[in-house]
Amino acid sequence: MTTAIFLIIALLILAGLWIVSVQRKLVSSDELCKNALSQIGVQQSSRWDALSALAELVKSYSEHEYKTISDVIARRAAVGRDSSPADADAQEELLGTALRSINVVAEQYPQLKANENYIKAMDSVNTYENQVRMSRMVFNDTVTKFNRMTRQFPDSAVASMLGFRAKEYLLENQEKSGMPSMKI
């Protein structure tokens, strides 16, 4: 009888240790997802700064376009640990809108495109855009690992019991998903 009680207590202790272990893995993975989203926000912020510098250059060429770009930049919102993937996607869309406006002005004013400060700022924008792209891939990879833990048995039982839910992925930019036309 005492052996049975001792065995039951040992099994309960092992089950408790296993639950704690799974909880720690889930929390760690959840924190990695939040960190990855925060990194996207950091890169986007740097990109916004570079676009703001470009907007100042545009001002000397076209006051109307500067106002339009400034209005877009004013809608800038920080993306951080507690943001959602939709928030990050919305900021990417705004960034794209501002950049397209700047490109339109640059096409109208060749001397702007030739400006050394414009070239440096565009290089910065492109660098930060690549970093955002890499950060987005890291985020989606991290979310995949987290979602796998929350959906695969037996960890899914602990995840459900502790309130961990699958996370959303960042959306693919449909404009950039296809190959550009190679027609001459």
Class from secondary-structure proportions: mainly alpha
Shape verdict = rod-shaped
Low-confidence stretches: 177-184
What is the number of strand segments?
A: 0
Give the SSE order as H and E letters. HHHHHHH
Largest beta-sheet characterization: none
The end-to-end distance, rounded to whole angstroms, is 87 Å
Summarize the structure.
With 184 residues, the protein is mainly α.
Describe this structure in words.
The chain has helices spanning 2-59, 63-74, 85-108, 110-114, 116-151, 155-162, 174-177. Helices cover 80% and strands 0% of the residues. It is mainly alpha-helical and 184 residues long.
Write the layout of secondary structure elements.
Layout: H1 2-59, H2 63-74, H3 85-108, H4 110-114, H5 116-151, H6 155-162, H7 174-177
List keywords for this structure.
single chain; 7 helices; disordered C terminus; rod-shaped; mainly alpha; 184 residues
